[in-house]
């Protein structure tokens, strides 16, 4: 039985390989996708990027973690500022 993968799925797997540094063999085992398929997707992606620069559509797990950390830090800072606005003459 042949599995067909959506372009969204392919792009996500490619991003894991290129930006996260994941091994194709590991992803192949975890996602049950042929290594040759992932290799073709990565090659096509690199060729496309050489021709044109695209915008990011997907967020990898490490990018998500970084965004969550930045959000938590900004929430703490904003809370501190709001709690001490009288002391520092901050107008909100």
| Continuous helix count | 4
Order of helices and strands: HHHH
**What's the overall geometry?**
elongated
* Helicity, as a percent range: 55-70%
Radius of gyration (CA) equals 21 Å
Average pLDDT works out at: 84
Q: Tell me the major beta sheet.
A: none
Query: How many E strands?
Result: 0
Number of domains: 2
SS content category:
mainly alpha
First-last Cα distance: 61 Å
**Beta fraction of the residues?**
under 5%
What are the low-pLDDT stretches, counting only 5+ consecutive residues below 50? none
Protein name: Transposase
Organism: Viridibacillus soli
InterPro entries: Homeodomain-like_sf, Transposase_8
Pfam families: HTH_Tnp_1
Q: Secondary-structure blueprint of this entry?
A:
Layout: H1 7-18, H2 24-31, H3 35-51, H4 61-83
Labels describing this entry:
92 residues; mainly alpha; 4 helices; 0% strand; elongated
In short:
This protein has 92 residues and is mainly α.
Overview of this structure, please?
This is Transposase. InterPro entries: Homeodomain-like_sf (IPR009057), Transposase_8 (IPR002514). It comes from Viridibacillus soli. It holds the Pfam family HTH_Tnp_1. The protein is mainly alpha-helical and 92 residues long. The chain has two domains: 1-58; 59-92. The protein contains four helices and no strands. Helix 1 (7-18) packs across helix 3 (35-51). It starts with 6 loop residues before the first helix and ends in a 9-residue tail after the last helix. The model has no long low-confidence stretch (mean pLDDT 84).
């Amino acid at each position: 039985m042949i599995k067909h993968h959506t372009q969204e799925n392919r792009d996500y797997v490619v991003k894991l390989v290129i930006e996260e540094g994941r091994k194709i063999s590991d992803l192949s085992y975890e996602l049950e996708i042929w290594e040759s398929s992932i290799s073709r997707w990565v090659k096509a992606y690199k060729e496309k990027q050489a021709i044109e620069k695209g915008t990011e559509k997907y967020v990898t797990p490490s990018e998500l973690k970084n965004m969550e950390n930045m959000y938590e830090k900004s929430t703490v800072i904003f809370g501190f500022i709001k709690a001490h606005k009288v002391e520092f003459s901050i107008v909100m």
